[in-house]
Amino acid sequence: MVSPAFSSPPLIFAKAFPFHLAFRRWETEIVHLGDVLARICPELSLGSSLKEHFRIERPNVPLEFDAIREQSRSIFLLESLHSKMLLKGQMVVAENQEVIFFLGSPWIADLADLAPLGLTINDFALHDRVVDLLFLLQAQKTALADAKKLTDKLTKQRAQLRSALKEAEQAANAMAQTQQLKKTLQELQQTQAQLIQSAKMSSLGELVAGVAHEINNPVNFILGNLDCARDNIQQLLKLIELYQKYNPDPESEILAYRDEIEFEFLDQDLPKLCSSMRVGADRIRNIVVSLRNFSRLDEAEMKFVNIHEGLDSTLLILQNRLTENKGRPEIEVIKEYGELPLIECYPGQLNQVFLNLLGNAVDALESQKQEGSQIRIRTELLPAGDRARVLISDNGPGFSKEVGDRMFDPFFTTKPVGQGTGLGLSISYQIVVLKHQGLIRAIGVPGSGAEFCVEIPLRQKN
User: Fold this and answer.
1) What is the residue-level pLDDT of the chain in tens, covering all 462 positions?
2) Strand runs (DSSP E) across 263-351, as ranges?
């Protein structure tokens, strides 16, 4: 096995390029394979010739070592001789000029292309642009399909509304027709709300994919070099220690400069500095993963998921609003998670419900600006064992019975103009009740806070 001629450790190199391969000058012999590439192409073996397994689709060069080395700056497209798989990437010549590394990944244009190759999104490296492309394609496909369905439904309901208005003017029984008109109008408002929310979630998906890609690249670079930097610093400090041991009486100029830079402090602080940078980089990476987990636009079908992960991701999205700012004290979040099995649901839509409920709780607490503000999240399995319950409560100002009766109506809001659309709770009701056959209710007393209860079946009926 030939070690890669790169500064990154082998484990980091393998994770960063799971589809790589390396071949040497003699007979283009394969000397190294990425784990994922070896798994999906079992015909590949160390010691065999690259010519036995691939041909170069582009650029137009023969599969010869020197010809490939001359075109190493080009983007290569390799076609498997055993399957229809195409690999796209770049050739990198090792320092010894005797080995060439191919760094790339399968050329994928749609999520449906993964399964025939035996692949999942998790097989790709986080920084791979293919992952972001697949997220964007699926988000666009889902948003367009939803928009078409909702537009057709909106057109049909508008026609029904016009017909109902005409019948109301001509019919003798005005009361019955007025009730029908109100019902049709309410359905029209709900469809309009869904259409608006679909566009918002599509934009969110594109934003998440773009942010994740832009952040992942520099973070992976930092993480890939932190360990090397830490080792180099330790080696330099060890070298200085040896100098001090075998040269205990250095020149006065060295002693003066040592005191000037406070060497004893540097000796202790540099390792801590590396550790703190590592913690910060891991924190950024966790935020990016939580963003993707929150949007879940790649999961348009029912999935079995851990809803605690969705709650935690939503809290991370709202973290900036929970901390102390603008004269408002910090909002304490108390989590009382029970033992829950995986729940069959639409993960992205359920996360949207949690965001709406938690966001409303933060809005209520911000309006009173008092010490001791709390949000409590409790989850439990109902005694019958077929439903999960999520309780989200706050110690804010609460709400009246009149507000509670209209809380889930489309476009109803108690917030000032420009701060609320009246869509959040209406959309949440449709997601929980209509799409998950669940239950959502609100309990509030003026001056005593509010509590929202969401119940979701563990398994959805066909």
Assistant:
1) 344 444 445 555 666 778 888 999 888 999 988 888 888 898 988 999 999 999 999 899 999 999 999 988 888 999 999 888 888 888 888 888 889 998 888 887 777 777 888 887 777 765 555 555 555 555 556 556 666 777 788 788 888 888 877 777 776 666 777 777 777 777 776 666 666 655 555 555 566 666 666 777 787 778 778 888 888 888 888 888 888 888 888 888 888 888 888 888 888 888 888 887 877 777 777 667 666 655 554 455 788 999 998 898 888 878 888 887 777 788 899 999 999 999 999 888 888 889 889 988 888 888 777 788 899 999 999 999 999 999 999 988 888 888 877 777 766 676 665 555 566 788 888 889 888 999 999 888 888 889 999 999 999 886
2) 303-305, 332-336, 343-345
DSSP-assigned letter for residue 325? B
- CA-based nearest residue to 431, from 451, 450, 414, 455: 455
Fold of domain 301-457: Heat Shock Protein 90 (3.30.565)
pTM over 0.70: no
Of 3.40.1190.20, 3.30.450.260, 3.20.20.70, 3.40.1280.10, the CATH number of 10-125 is: 3.30.450.260
DSSP 9-52: -HHHHHHH-TT-EEEESGGGBEEEE-HHHHHH-TT--TTSBGGG
Query: Which SS3 state, helix, strand or coil, does residue 401 take?
Result: helix
